[in-house]
Amino acid sequence: GPPPVSQRSPDAPPDLEQLVAALLDPDVSRRPGGTRVLRLLGVQDGALGNQISAASILAARRPLTGRDGELKRLHEAADRAAAQPVLIRVSGTHGTGKTALCEHFLEEQRAAAQDLVIFRTRCLRHPSGPHEPLQEIAQQVAEYFKLRRAAPPPLGAPARHAPRSLTRAGQRSLEKIFPGVFGSFDPGGPEALPPLAPDPLEQRWGALRALHGLLRELVGDRRVICFIDDYQYADMDTRRMTETMMTDPLDAPLLLLLAEDRSPRTPRNGEHIVLDGLESQDARALSEDLLSSAL
């Protein structure tokens, strides 16, 4: 394997040397994944259980710097979303802190609101499979309904079983596009479901319509924030889903938050927050904070 970092730089910290050696392991299967990398960087296990992105975990180790105005606008949008659907986009070049700002906002919202449901997903430039961002949202939506079904109903209320909005045709389409995610919702089982539409495109659109209906039903129960990061990489189905939310609004308390690099494919409607570079005094404060935390 490659020589240890200490041979080239005797003053290198031991944890850095350990991390570099692990990342350069000749056996690819032994190289650390994201969680182990964060542990090697000193992130505590408690932080790893919050189901937030690596960028936001690292950002949580220091206060948000120089984004008070943008953070205030996000909270104002959340206030408006308590009465009607709101779309807000955060854009800027790579490294301007879009994810850190949005995650900071989400954590403040979660701390302030007990009835809030937050869905998070991220679009990858090279996804491992189709519908990947929607797969994450579908799993989170399904988990919400499973928890709701398991909870005892209020006194005098009927027991909740499958979502009211889910038709058998919608169930079939969801199972085709998101296999294994929604199968337990229909008491008749997959064998009792109607046949799929023969057109694969109609299958996908049927699943999107069903997922949209589930979101409509969900936000009737709770306030919802849906955060999609790196939206500039969104695939056709993810864009169709967000456009459906805009053109066929859920008429319920929903905040749709998109973070993206500047892109000509961005939807033109909704509020827009553009992140530029930090002011010089904020950049200095951030640099000093990073240096002090590294010592």
Could you characterize the architecture of this molecule?
- The chain has a five-stranded parallel beta sheet, with helices on both faces.
- Helix 6 (68-81) crosses helix 7 (98-112) and helix 9 packs across helix 10.
- Mean pLDDT is 77; it is low at 57-61.
- Strand 3 (223-229), helix 11 (236-247) and strand 4 (254-260) form a beta-alpha-beta unit.
- It is 46% helix and 11% strand.
- The protein is α/β, with parallel strands linked by helices and 295 residues long.
Taking all residues together, what is the mean pLDDT?
77
Portion of residues within helices: 40-55%
Q: What is the alpha-carbon Rg in Å?
A: 22 Å
What is the first-to-last residue Cα distance?
A: 29 Å
Principal-axis shape? globular
Q: Tally the helices: what do you get?
A: 12
Strand content range: 5-15%
Order of helices and strands: HHHHHHEHEHHHEHEEH
User: Quick one: biggest sheet?
Assistant: 5 strands, parallel
Q: Structural class, from secondary structure content? A: alpha/beta
Strand order of the largest sheet: 2-3-4-1-5
**Low-pLDDT regions:** 57-61
Count of extended strands: 5
List its salient traits.
single chain; five-stranded parallel β-sheet; 295 residues; alpha/beta
Please give a quick description of this structure.
Helix content is 46%, strand content 11%. It has twelve helices and five strands.
List the helices and strands and how they pair.
Elements: H1 5-8, H2 14-23, H3 34-40, H4 45-48, H5 54-59, H6 68-81, E1 86-91, H7 98-112, E2 116-122, H8 132-150, H9 168-177, H10 200-219, E3 223-229, H11 236-247, E4 254-260, E5 271-274, H12 280-294
Helix pairs in contact: 6-7, 8-10, 9-10, 10-11
